[in-house]
Amino acid sequence: MIEISTSSTTTTLVIAGDLDLAERDQFPEVTARVVGLRRQLLVIDMCHVTFMDSTGAAFLISLADAGRRRGGATVLRGAAERDLFVLEICGALDLFRVDAVHACEPADGASPPDTADAPA
């Protein structure tokens, strides 16, 4: 599942589930919508991506490349190490800014444990 939201300067894609060959039919429509919005910043939220293959990587690369040609930037938020590895193997990791600070919410929707009061 891919959801698109926008603000005046940013388009955000929230991706959940697999980003692979089985999902490729929706990639052209999503790409056309994102490119048509012409925002300077594209944030791709990958917190809930369970699997990404080279087809999914090619989709992300095409989005980042289209943004870069317009002078924009693409940020990967919540990408797992395995997903970053796929992009690195494809030689495309430098097309993205990686948000290493973002902390994803757990998949069950529960808040992360509060460690401020934990004993030392």
Summarize the entry for a quick read.
It comes from Cellulomonas shaoxiangyii. The protein is 30% helix and 29% strand.
Count of DSSP E strands?
A: 5
Q: Any idea what the radius of gyration is?
A: 15 Å
Tell me the number of structural domains. 1
Query: Which parts are unreliable, with pLDDT below 50 for 5 consecutive residues or more?
Result: 110-120
Distance from first to last alpha carbon: 41 Å
**Sheet of most strands:** 5 strands, mixed
Category by helix and strand content:
alpha/beta
CATH superfamily: STAS domain
User: Helix proportion of residues, in percent?
Assistant: 25-40%
What's the CATH topology name?
Answer: Transcription Regulator spoIIAA
Beta strand %: 25-35%
> For the largest beta sheet, what order do the strands appear in spatially?
1-2-3-4-5
> Residue-averaged pLDDT, rounded?
86
CATH class: Alpha Beta
Number of helices: 3
Following the backbone from N to C, one meets helices and strands in this order, namely EEHEHEHE
Characterization of this structure:
By secondary structure, this protein is an alpha/beta fold. Helix content is 30%, strand content 29%. The chain has a single domain (2-99), classed as STAS domain (Transcription Regulator spoIIAA, 2-Layer Sandwich), CATH 3.30.750. The chain has helices at 27-37, 54-69, 81-89, and strands spanning 2-6, 10-19, 41-52, 73-77, 97-99. Helix 1 runs parallel beside helix 2 (54-69). The protein is globular, with a radius of gyration of 15 Å. Residues 1-91 form the STAS domain. Pfam families: STAS. This is Anti-sigma factor antagonist. InterPro entries: STAS_dom, STAS_dom_sf.
